Input
Amino acid sequence: MATLKILKSWFYPVTPLTVVTPFSIVIAIYTIYLGFTLESPAIIYPIIVVPITMLIVGLYVLDRILIKKLFPYYVLIIAELVLLAGGYLQINYANSTTDIHITTDEDYIFVLYDAHENSLDRFKKKGLFSKELLINGNIVHLDSSLRYRDDIRIFPPDSWMSVYGDRGNYFYKGDTIPYIYKLRSRQANEYARTQQAYIDSLLTLILQK
Output
């Protein structure tokens, strides 16, 4: 009976952390499994999830201590809901991205940072904090301030199995235009099309249009 009473004290009365903690432990175990069974990039999953799970378990221990000290139940419920909501928002904000999805029949893409506008106005909201822009074409014009954004991800067409990427600055009519160049790989003339002279010639043609 004593053992049963101790076990009951760890799960009753029920609080938000009583529900969240077991799920977080299961997810942590699953991410550890993925990290050791999939290719090397998957190791990032347990590196992120396990510390968060340890924090949640620590908070749950504190939760049980406060419950045993007859801490007001409704106050604890409200505090945990606020804490969980804040953690959820923080995680979403920290992992938010700004994505550009490109659809084109061409086999190369240029992202040119030469637009004189607030390009973020063209992006649509995705989720709580992320944004995305859908482009039908192989030339994307963004304002120069976005070149420093680390959260911007550029996705070429799904049919591109392999992609060559390059970035640099192109000097055109007294202006410096930062650019990102992506080329669909595994083509007969791929090497020639990765040379700077070829990239510059493409940029000249594009900017003269």
In short: The beta strands are 98-103, 108-115, 124-126, 130-136, 139-143, 152-155, 163-172, 175-184. The CA atoms of residues 2 and 34 lie 39 Å apart. Helices lie at 2-11, 16-37, 44-68, 73-94, 190-193, 196-208. DSSP finds six helices and eight strands in the chain.
